[in-house]
Design brief:
heterodimer, A: alpha/beta, Rossmann fold, 3 domains, 6-stranded mixed beta sheet, 19 helices, 22 strands, B: mainly alpha, ABC transporter involved in vitamin B12 uptake, BtuC, transmembrane (chain B), transmembrane helix (chain B), transport (chain B), cell membrane (chain B), cell inner membrane (chain B)
Chain lengths: 530, 349
Amino acid sequence: MIESSIPEGGELATLSPVVSLSGVSVAYGSNVVLTDVTLDFFAGRITALLGANGAGKSTLIKALSGANPRYSGDIAVDGTVLHLSSPVLAKAHGISTVHQKVADGIVPGLSIAENVVLDDLASASRHPLRNAKQSLLDARAALATLGLDWPDSLLAQDAARLSISDAQLLVLARALRGTPRLLILDEPTSALTAAEAERLFAVLRALRDTGLSIVYVSHRFGEIEALADRVVVLRDGLVQHSSERPFAWHEILHDMLGRATELEQTRVDVRRGQNVVARVSGVPLLPAAPPLDLEVRAGEVLGILGLIGAGKTELAELLAGLARPASGTLELDGEPYTPKRPSDALRRGVVLVPEDRQRQALLPGWSVAHNISIPFLKISSALGTLRSARETSRAQKVIDSLGVVTAGPNASIDDLSGGNQQKVVVGRWLSAGPRLALLDEPFRGVDISARREIGDRLKDLVAAGDAAAVVLSSDVDEILEVADRVIVLVAGAIELDAYADETDRASIVGAFLGARTRDHSAVPPEGHPK
Amino acid sequence: MTSATLPPKTASFAERGAAFVVRWGFIGVTVALIAFFVITEPNFRTVDNVFGMLKFIAPTAIAGLGVMLAITVGGIDLSVGASAGFAVSIAAWTMVIGNQVGAVAIGVVLLGGLLIGGLNAFLIVVARIPDLLATLATSFVIVGLKLLIVDGKSISSQMSLADGSTAPGKFTADYLWLDRGSLGPVPVPVIIFVVITALLWFILERTRWGRALYAVGANAEAARLAGIRVQLYRTIAYMGCGLLASIAGLLLGARIGQGDVSAGNSLLLDAVAVALVGVSVLGIGRPNAWGTALGAILIAVMVTGFTMVGLPYYAQDFGKGIVLLIALLFSFTFSRRRTVVTAGSTTSS
């Protein structure tokens, strides 16, 4: 049991939790994404839920909100174990959720009032004729719980015209109808400006004081510091951390970013690259970020550590020809580098293993060999005619060098496990013999042996001294395992740049923390809409 | 490092049975139908009838191969019927009103087909209108443009014009040869049909350009990241489709022998149907040239056979519809493979 706290929230808080989870697990096929989570949520308290990508936050929220009924273990509301089989049922039992994408919660074409009372419109017991007057009355009452006094003329307008922050308040008002016991907010400030976020926090504090239990999911430590009573950290589907105020941020970050509490070890085989392969000069990665300068050197694996919104993917996309710099310049091998599309980058020897394997890399239903050969159709053919021997031999090399578990080059990619699919994707790009290999979250959903295998091949790639690899990740242990040089990226700015044997996990985590605590208010540095 | 091997998958009897049906079902049905008509209808088994059937279905098959190209890049083209009809009228207009020889008419029509394909590609690739809607709109525009050009009339040799004079030109022999000519016993339309099928099969299955087209249809984002010029290949596919639809129209016009304004009206559904049947043939699960040709042949056998046994012509659509439905069931419902028809942005797996 992780939860051992006794709430101190005054007379409103009771000793029995509003919602309690015990031994909740979720598996997709053989892939366990949430393991034995036991947590209590008390009235009048705000619990911040933290975790890197793929830590299991959304899985937990889905189970709690009834969106994924296929969980095991018990979820109890007021001490009664229920099976939350649908969002409607969860809401009927007082669990209300505001999802991250506000726009998904707004039905354009319906009035603001009707959007507030949307659940009623869908209800079977509702009179089938639309009753604008009743909707208006109900909507006004719902908005009043947030202290909002929108005039009727506004309520009658199309909800599509609301600003994003007002839309956020609308979906919040809707979630609060029927007086929920537990309110789940998934990154509610991700689209809000600082002032709008501040307005939301005031509302949330007022709601907490009425005895509502709130689960607040966010990546923004400043917000959590300003708002939360408790912090729960998920990592790899497990509850890694749970603590009350005052928060030990160093420890929280450590638990959030690290994979295992392995002994600190100084890497002995750290290579130092010589020649600069790629140079980024004065390029802002994010709209509000300062211009970034960065050198990638041949002969080393550069690990770039950053959370969502740090600018990692943006950096990879710039170098791979998927996006163009807003300002500043890129250089490759000392020459100007202005790739207009991925094929330009490929021609210059820059390859990208993209973040989302299924969406951006795999060709479903195709064989392993054909998945591997797709960027190399020209080399694999003579006079335009494909030579399957060339495709097969390239595929066999990839299979052998990365130890891909498959029936062979002709097996369907669909029959491979996620880790082996990832090996195929990485192998595809490394088989190009790149000058610069960019790997965006290459180890997500990949088991430890596949991770090691991929890491070893990256080291092989740079060992000769004329190629560079850049691994972008949100996991400090992944980075420490594979990288010769570590860069910590926060909100598009470099907070640390050091060789692996000159730094350690504590300093790396500290670099994160330094950047975060410098901005200790509720106003997050990256809290501006894109 | 050696590669590990997986134990062979053991499929249940039911699974293997289903796979067998998916793989061979269509060919089985075609062969059974042919056998039935061969046994019951003496006229069916003549060489003339075989070539007659192939000749009859050639325009449909060629337009179907065009639709297949659009499906290959994850789209659809609903303007093939209109394009073919446009070709019929424009060829007639060029020869009869413009007093040109057939070769010129053919050149004009092929150019027109490429332009129509280019327009579709522009609307879909650059203007980002969904393929289904864009090609539906262009088919209206094409039909309307055709009617404006020919004053809403069917054009025939020596027709009288509005000013009372007689049209200067006529359907020339070189154009009519497209339908009436033959090499040995093989009619020209059948040769064109077979050559185009073989060519497209070769391009799609054996060349890197074909592989790239398939990659665009399978996962456009992955293809783009692999350096494939996705928009270029989609443009090529739609232009190819326009070209094939205009070839279908040329054959149709030569068969009719006049610029019938209603020609091509019924072509669209048949062309889309044979392309979709082609996806399911052999359980390949993706558009392919042989499958499309086979789908066309199946329809030709059905139509010819039904006519011979005395079923009314209006029973044909019912039969075609059932065949298409079964093909779709094979592709989407019973097949374990992912079907990569993404026409109209509906994806199935």
